[in-house]
Design goal:
Structural class: alpha+beta
Largest sheet: 5 strands, mixed
Number of domains: 2
Number of helices: 7
Radius of gyration: 20 Å
Shape: elongated
CATH class of the largest domain: Alpha Beta
Helix content: 25-40%
CATH topology of the largest domain: GTP Cyclohydrolase I, domain 2
Number of strands: 7
Strand order of the largest sheet: 5-2-3-6-7
Order of helices and strands: HHHEEEEHEHEHEH
Distance between the termini: 41 Å
Length: 188
């Protein structure tokens, strides 16, 4: 992504185009806040997923079962309307001699969700980054999100949840392993 960011003047122009007065007391600091907020909300463009995934060989030598982390927060903005979508991610993998620091999986989700996204791509990016950088036997990612572009405009239906998944490696052909992952993802 370009180094160019929206400036306070850009946000002031947006407020004017909406019919607002950017000099009104409640809006005077809004352009500055928006610059800061959007830098944070799009900070994933400046992160390299490979650098986030600290890999350990110690402790994984004989471990060959699923490792699953549930409830990872997802906060992103859809690329179609710039509306927020949010929910939870579950990531699981079967190590192949290496494990990753558990907090790094949350950082990986943040890296990709802090970009303009569609949930389908977000799910695949997380799974592919794990397969590429950790080289496990299997990776599974399930993301459940609510999309404000559906809830606050258009169809205006509250509370609907979109669920996406990506299964790579042994999770594709191995039905028993796939079922185990999905059961763990659901909390069963």
């Amino acid at each position: 992504m370009s180094e160019q960011q929206f400036t306070e003047q850009d946000w002031r122009r947006l407020l004017v185009s909406l019919g607002e007065n950017p000099d009104r007391a409640g809006l005077v600091e809004t352009p500055s806040r928006l610059v800061t907020a959007w830098k944070h909300w799009t900070s994933g463009y400046t992160q390299d997923p490979a650098e986030l995934l600290k890999v350990f060989e110690d402790g994984a030598e004989e471990y060959n079962e699923l490792i699953v982390i549930r409830g990872i927060p997802v906060y992103s903005h859809c690329e179609h309307h710039l509306a927020p979508f949010f929910g939870k991610a579950t990531i699981g993998y079967v190590p192949n001699g290496k494990i990753v620091g558990l907090s790094k999986l949350t950082r990986l989700v943040n890296c990709f969700s802090r970009r303009l996204q569609v949930q389908e791509r977000l799910t695949i990016q997380i799974a592919n980054a794990l397969m590429t950088n950790l080289e496990p036997k299997a990776v599974g990612v399930v993301i459940r999100c609510r999309h404000m572009c559906m809830e606050s405009r258009g169809i205006s239906t509250e509370g609907e949840e979109t669920v996406t998944s990506s299964m790579l490696g042994e999770l594709q052909p191995n039905l028993a392993l796939r079922t185990e992952f999905l059961d763990l993802a659901r909390g069963a």
